[in-house]
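Hi support team,

I've been running sequence recovery on a batch of backbones for a student project. Most finish fine, but this one hangs at about 90% for roughly twenty minutes before it completes. I'm not sure whether the input is malformed or the queue is just slow. I've pasted the structure tokens below so you can try to reproduce it. Let me know if you need the job ID as well.

Thanks,
M.K.
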């Protein structure tokens, strides 16, 4: 990508706050790339010019009703405010900041107009250089808008934050801050809403990050955090973008890392960014790698980091019957008891809990949906009825397989053989993005299985 903080950032496939010492300051960069002059050039060439507070967008795409292109400068300005908020910057300190973007159907038109310089490399989707960017037009309006904002984040971080951080952060933060949905306000105007970890597939049509990471997980080849953090410059495939986004999402959203990550972002976003993050007091690289792997293993839309954070403590060796509870509102829960590989164990569960609601179709609202430990077949998740009790162990890499939760037993009563030495984890079967409307818990008894 780029060797210095002012060089270019390329996108070929489908970062926070002011430092205490103020070693860097947001710079007013309007005029750095001659936005006014470039706009005049575009007008002379007969190109369509859409001007907004934070973006001048030039395109050779003909006007088409309902394609959303005319709204892009306004949405860009709304996103700009969210980028400033992420980094703790008062937008008022950047009164003149403005980017210049080219939405291109025919590249020769822009070359002839002098708006696509020869030094800009061939790009599949987009390329950014300081506060200028170029992007190929997209057939999907949602992906076109995401790509525009991805390049916009690059323009913002390159100029305002003097970005020269490692590759995972450059691309990961661009994907993280560009991901959004639109929500209509009281007047019916669709507004930008930041959604770095989208709640629904329909919010991010054609983006495909979550699906790609899940395919890698299913194939037994998920990204390894150490490799992601050491990724070289120049890898622009979707796997690299998705892995970088997942790393930023984990560090920004997981309660164990969010504070350290925000503190690191308060400093320079330079080549030493990863090293400073890892040097944070209390940082545990092996635990971070495990949390990243667990995140990828459970990844789904609406993933809730607070409810899905895992206690990795080793627990006490289970030698006799013990009782506990499984909270229906949380993901994998450490039972507090460790199993011994090869030994036989038994889990028995009792109780009922709420696992969401069923829409009643009437103004009165919805009907609570309840389940017991065997689950309910009204809906299935990952091959099992929702609500079904799952018992598992986390097994580190072995025989070429990635680390993962290995399901040992399911349902109201299960007997199984321990797959390794370590704690037993329990949860109800449901998407990690749908835990918030659950209520209640299961009572469980865990103990050695009778011969």
């Amino acid at each position: 990508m780029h060797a210095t903080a002012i060089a270019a950032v390329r996108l070929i496939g489908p970062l926070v706050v002011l430092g205490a010492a103020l070693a860097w300051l947001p710079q007013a960069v309007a005029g750095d790339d001659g936005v006014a002059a470039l706009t005049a050039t575009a007008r002379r060439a007969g190109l369509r010019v859409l001007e907004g507070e934070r973006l001048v967008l030039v395109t050779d795409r003909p006007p088409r009703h309902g394609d959303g292109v005319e709204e892009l400068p306004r949405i860009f300005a709304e996103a700009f405010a969210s980028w400033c908020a992420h980094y703790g910057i008062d937008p008022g300190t950047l009164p003149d900041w403005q980017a210049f973007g080219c939405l291109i159907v025919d590249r020769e038109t822009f070359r002839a107009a002098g708006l696509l310089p020869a030094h800009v490399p061939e790009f599949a989707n987009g390329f950014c250089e300081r506060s200028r960017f170029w992007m190929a037009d997209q057939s999907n309006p949602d992906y076109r808008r995401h790509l525009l904002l991805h390049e916009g984040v690059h323009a913002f971080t390159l100029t305002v934050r003097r970005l020269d951080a490692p590759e995972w952060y450059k691309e990961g933060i661009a994907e993280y801050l560009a991901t959004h949905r639109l929500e209509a306000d009281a007047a019916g105007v669709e507004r930008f809403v930041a959604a770095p970890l989208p709640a629904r597939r329909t919010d991010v049509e054609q983006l495909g990050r979550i699906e790609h990471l899940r395919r890698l997980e299913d194939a037994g080849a998920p990204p390894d955090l150490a490799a992601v953090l050491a990724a070289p410059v120049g890898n622009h495939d979707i796997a690299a973008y998705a892995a970088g986004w997942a790393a930023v999402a984990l560090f920004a959203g997981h309660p164990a890392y969010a504070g350290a990550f925000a503190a690191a972002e308060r400093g320079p976003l330079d080549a030493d960014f990863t090293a400073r993050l890892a040097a944070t007091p209390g940082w545990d690289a092996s635990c971070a790698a495990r949390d990243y792997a667990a995140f990828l293993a459970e990844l789904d839309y609406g993933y809730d980091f607070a409810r899905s954070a895992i206690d990795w403590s080793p627990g006490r060796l289970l030698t006799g019957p013990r009782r506990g509870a499984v909270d229906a509102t949380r993901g994998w829960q450490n039972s507090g008891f460790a199993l011994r590989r090869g030994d036989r164990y038994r889990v028995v569960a009792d109780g009922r809990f709420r696992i969401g609601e069923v829409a009643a179709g009437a103004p009165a609202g919805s009907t609570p949906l309840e389940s017991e430990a065997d689950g309910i077949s009204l809906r299935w998740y990952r091959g099992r009825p929702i609500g079904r009790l799952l018992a598992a162990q986390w097994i580190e890499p072995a025989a070429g397989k990635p680390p993962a939760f290995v399901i040992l037993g399911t349902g109201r009563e299960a007997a199984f053989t321990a797959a390794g030495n370590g704690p037993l984890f329990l949860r109800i079967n449901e998407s990690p993005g749908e835990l918030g409307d659950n209520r209640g818990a299961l009572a469980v008894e865990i103990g050695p299985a009778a011969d």
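--
Follow-up from support: It reproduced on our side and the slowdown came from queue contention, not your input. Residues 1-24, 26-31 have pLDDT under 50 and may be disordered. No action needed from you.
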